[in-house]
Every structure is written in structure tokens, then in C-alpha cells.
Amino acid sequence: MGYSIGVSAYFHESSVSLFQDGELIEFSREEYFSRIKGDNNFPRLTIRYLIEKYDILEKEIDYVAFYEKPLLSFLNVTLYALQHFPDSRKLIYNNLMKIRQSGLFFSSDVKKYLKISNNKIIYCPHHLSHVLSTFPFLPDQEPHVSVVIDGVGDTSSTSIYKVDKGNIKFLDSVEYPFSLGLIYSSVTDYLGFNINDGEYKVMALASYGTGVLNKKFQSLVSKKDSTINLKNFSYYKSIEKSYTDDFIKVFGKPFDKLTSCLTVGSSEFIRATEIAHSTQEYLEENVVNIFDKIHETTGCSNFSLSGGVALNSKLVTKIAQKEYIDAIFVPPNPGDSGAAIGAGVFGSLKSGFKIQNNSSPYQGPTPDRKGQVDVKSEFLTFIFEGEDAYSKTAKLIDQGEILGLINGRMEVGPRALGHRSLVCDPRNKIAVDKLSQKIKNRETFRPLAPACLETFTDDWFIVSDKIRQSLHWMGALVQPTKKCLNEIPSVCHVDQTARMQIVRENNEPFHHLLTQFFRLSGIPILINTSFNCGGDPIVCDVQDAITSSIRMNINYLLVESKLFKVK
Ligand SMILES: [Fe+2]
Fold it and tell me: Of 67, 301, 486, 515, which one's alpha carbon is 20 to 30 angstroms from that of 550?
């Protein structure tokens, strides 16, 4: 028996994967335990949790693998910044001051918490970590081309690999500072959102745009040889802002960080939507070109896509529209947090294990973190359990209630899939608006997503088989059918798309709740969003759920098969 631990840390939210004999058995983010949103410290709490939960002896650990080559990554960014000295002095100073909290000290950080030898601490090239993060979730062993697009990893911003029965062959890459991901993040910054967090808001805004700025953006950002015109951006030399005065000259003053100022329909909102639209269009056009070229040179029709840019479900849907594509697979956590899974695969392969595919997207902690849930709280009143709990929950939803679900293991990816979710009736506009704006405090321009019973998916949504697999974790967009648009328009965005989750029969108890709601209402769909309050991490255990429910005025909680009223 051999364990392999994969770690992503110091930059995005720190995460850890645990593999046993080639099988992914646990994945968790440090923020679930520390309760610090986006916690990027060395994930000591998660590692301790895993060691205790699985009673792992240190001698049973084959490898602890990091998700990038830290020295390469540090030198790449710093040496490029040095070319722009003195403009880049703050960036260089910042990198040097934070050196102790970087991957360069990964080995010494590991050894503070695990007594293992140096040769068990290994480093996986960053984009290879992304490629490998798809392996546990791939539905089959079909040969495919694996495309990675992110901000920057080690030295590259885009990488292309051929994957054939576990053999991985590097084909091509685009090197930093040319980065489609960083261009998108720069516009995210310009629009007043936080980088590495607000990109999905830009994607949502883009759907409102008409395209009037598309040509302007394209001519400003693209050089004649199709590379990026870096003079409009400063992410490679500044920590304060990612775009230059040249960009401002064309698109106007940057947006206020207070995004609530973006009132739908206001002139600033319209300006933001057009800039977002042109950025999305630029991304889509360039990524589709990459896929076209891959298909021309390799003849391949099967793809996987990972890296932070793969979280752009609008882009994934656009790629899938190309005729030559048979399938495009996006794993449940394609970003840097999920790269911890790839690092774990890297260690497992080095130990000689075959990676088990078709893994569940629910690999996180259970509501009490260890197994049996024994809910005893002065803040909860027990109502029902078992069948009675589900039918009563369905009734409450039908009556307009918004419920918190905390069931089974947490989701691997950033999207709630019914295990740590807030749900409501998609027919009830008042409940949907309340959930979106009052409870979650989301921007009014962002849609909420539907979860649908697999059996009825095609009655309500137009689903392409090319992306069907990734819809189990909301990896792409679908279009609503007329029936859907007529009966539950609230599940759709302004461009008549929905980021729908297909809920399979084996996804209990979420499937069971949806079934009960369908029997009552004739609608096999619930609105589903992540169970967290404001800027908090998603709730992990029952205590987090109670605290968040009180703060958000959620009246009912379904914990495993037990329904409680929150006092
Ligand atoms: Fe990455």
C-alpha cells in the first residue's frame, strides 16, 4: 500500500490531494479548515486532517508532490521583471519579500509536519499537474489532446500534450509573458474586480455586450503576427495594476473597485459589458484558433482542457461548437487548486500505480469531517429524518423556502453540486432574487445555476454530447428548451444559456431531493448555489452551516437525511 500526497500552495487557495494505490481518496482546501477565504498558506491543517483521518504512517507515504517547479517559476517571472527595471522594482521587491512564503521553501515546510526524507519530496511541472488533474475523472482511456491554458505556470501560459493510454507527449507551448489568461485577468482588474476571483464576473458581464468594441480590443491587443501587444498591459512589471495608460486612453478610466456601483442598465454598466464582451470574444477567438491548429496538425477530435481558463464555461461551449470536435472534457477542478490532484497523480505514477479513472467529484470532508454525523446543537430543532425529511424539504421549497443542504463529502471543484448548496424553487422569482441578492449578495447581473435530474435533462435543456460528461460538475453551458424558457426563465442568463448540473441517480441524497421536488411540482430542477456567506469559504462541517445559516437568515437545514429548523 502506498500513499501519494499532492499539494498546491502559496499562490491560489492551498489544496491537498491524497491518493492510495493510484486512487484519489480525498481532496480538500486549507480554507475549509482555517475558514480564511483563499487561504494560500502551506496547508498544514489539511495535511494533519488527512494523516489523522486515514491513520497514515509516515513510512507509508511514497511521495509528497508539489504542483510546480518553484525555482523555475520564480526565476522566470523575476528575470523578466528585471528587464523592465526600474518600472518593475515594486514587483521584484514584493517577490523577494515574500520568498519565505513561496514554493522555494516547500521542502522545509513539508518537513515541519511530516518526517519524510528529501527524496520523497518531488516537484511536478505546473502544466503537467493540470494535465494529470484530469486523469482521475476521465470517463475512459481514449487518446486525446490535453490543452492547458492559465495565467502562467513555471514558464508557460499555454501547453499542449498528446495523451494516449497514460503516455504523455509534449507537443507545443506559448511562453510567458504572452498569456491569454493574464490578459483576461488584466481586464478583470480594470473592471474593478479582484484578479483570480472576479474572472467569472467578467464572463457573466460579457453576455450583455453587443460587440461594438470587439474590433477595437482586437486591434489594440493583437500584433500583426497575432501575438499579444504587451505595451497595453503591465502585469509582468507591476503589482499595482495590470494595464497601462495606453489601455486607459482607448477604453476610458478604470472602474471603481466597488462593483455594486454596476447597476444593470446604467451607462457604466453598458461600458463594462462591452469591454467584457470584447475580452471574452478575444479569448474565444484565440483559443479556438489554437484548437483549429491542433486539429490540423494532429487530426485529433478528442480534447481535454484544464488550467484556470478552463473555468470559463462560455469558452468551453464555444470550442465544442467546432464541427471537428467529438468531445471536450473539463475536469471538476481545472484551476490551480485542482492542480494538487495532478501533483498527487504525478507521485502515484512515479510509484508505479495505475490511476483509477471515473472518480466521483465529491472527495472532500464529510459534515463532521470523520464519518458519522451526530447533530447536537442548541441552535437547531430537529423536525424529520429519512423519507419524511425529504418530502417535507420538497414541500418547504415549493412554498418558497430557501434551504441549506449539507450532505456527504464536499465537492472537489469550486462549484456547489448539491452537497454544500443553497437551493430554491426555480419557478419562484421572489425566492430566486432573494437567494441571489439578499442572501448571497451577488451582483444583479450574475445568473444562478440550475441542477436537473439526468432523466429529464433533454426535456428542459439542449445538451450537446460533446460536453455532457463535464455537465456533471457544471463545466459548460447549455441552452434552455422552449419549455424551460416558458416555465422557469430564472435559470437562464441574459444570453439564454444556463450553467446546468446534470444530477445522476448515484448522486444521493441530492438526486433524492430533486426527485421528491419533481413529484410535488412536476419540475425536476432546483436552483443551486454554493453554501457560503459573503466572502467566507464554502461551509465544511455542521457548525459552519449553522453559523452561516444564522448570518444569512436561512431557516432550514437538511443535514444528511435529517431536517432541522434553525432557531
Ligand atoms: Fe495553473
Answer: 515
pLDDT bin (cut points 50, 70, 90) of residue 461 is very high
Sign of the alpha-carbon dihedral angle for 102, 103, 106, 108 = negative
pLDDT band at residue 4, thresholds of 50, 70 and 90? very high
How far away, in angstroms, is 335 Cα from ligand 1 center? 6
Closest CA to 252 of 237, 231, 234, 274: 274
Query: Last residue of some domain: 329, 346, 367?
Result: 329
Rounded CA gap, 312 and 497, in Å? 13
Q: Which three cell numbers stand for residue 435?
A: 437567494
450, 525 contact by CB (below 8 A):
yes
- Grid coordinates of 67: 504542483
**% helix, strand, coil for the chain, step of 5:** 40, 20, 40
Question: What separation in Å is there between the alpha carbon of 281 and the centre of ligand 1?
Answer: 22
Residue carrying C-alpha cell 481558463: 309
Ligand 1 centroid – CA 284 distance (Å):
19
CB 191 within 8 A of CB 185: no
Q: What is the pLDDT of residue 370?
A: 56
In the reported structure, the alpha carbon of residue 26 is separated from the centroid of ligand 1 by a whole-number distance in angstroms of: 21
CATH number where 307 lies: 3.30.420.40
Are 345 and 395 part of one and the same domain?
no
C-alpha 327, offset from chain centre: 20
Residues 6 or more apart in contact with residue 111 via CB below 8 angstroms: 121
Domain total for the chain? 3
Q: Is the dihedral of CA 541, 546, 547, 552 positive or negative?
A: positive
User: What would the mean pLDDT of 15-28 be, rounded to a whole number?
Assistant: 98
Q: How confident is the model at residue 136 (pLDDT cuts 50, 70, 90)?
A: very high
**CATH number for the domain including 465?**
3.90.870.20
Residues 119, 221 share a domain: no
Give the distance (Å) from ligand 1 centre to CA of residue 305: 12
